[in-house]
Design brief:
Largest sheet: 6 strands, mixed
Shape: globular
CATH architecture: Sandwich
Oligomer: single chain
CATH topology: Immunoglobulin-like
Order of helices and strands: HEEEEHEEEEEEEEHEEEEEEE
Radius of gyration: 18 Å
Strand order of the largest sheet: 1-3-2-11-8-9
Structural class: mainly beta
Number of domains: 1
Strand content: over 45%
CATH class: Mainly Beta
Number of strands: 19
Length: 240
Amino acid sequence: MKKTSTLLFVAVLTAFCSMAQISFNEVNVEDWIGSGPNEAMFIVDFDSDPIGTDSAFAWGINFEGDSISGDAILSMIAEADENFTYTMNGIFLDNINYFTNNQNYTNPNSGWFSIFESNDGSVWNWNSGIADNIAHGQWFGIVVMNTETWEAEINVPILTYTNSLSMSEKFEVFPNPAFDHINIKSTVQGNIIISNLSGQIVYQGSSDFEEIDLSYFNSGMYVLTLVTENSTVVRKILVK
């Protein structure tokens, strides 16, 4: 059995404070919906391949009370815009359709929706599901995950965002599945965060490192996040 280190967890928490926060005013929103003194940002990205913002859409949400759930936000958007529809399978999100600019965006059969939350629009963490709540100033993100590569990126459609090179060309992680290490090949500067599926952070470092030691990880699935100035890239890593 591999050993799990818990010492790093405390050291990582302060690192998030140095991340550049994205202002709601920087986001290219489809519309502001709802009423009330509190604000949140809702992102839906239909493309698991991290190539930019052409398939990512944002809605600003105004609401009353201390918090608002993801399914309540979906209902608000669908009520305000007839071109936005969604389906639920019990308590789980089944599909989203959004028709805009003469194109229909939806969840392909090969993918499924992964749901994240953020406090600043750059560092995204897995949440408990579509019924989870966010508070004033927070972000709710939904992205289609590629089930073959376990890769996805939540692209925030920023008004001044430009990117001439896709993240798939800039950032690679291998081997996957991994055993005692993974290799990082990156041409962009950023922070790497690895967490288990319970959300506990077990590693943080720079994308400058070419190899990460996994010998102290327990076997199982982990989430690797690369945080750059303009985007957040997510990889799932299976450690055997």
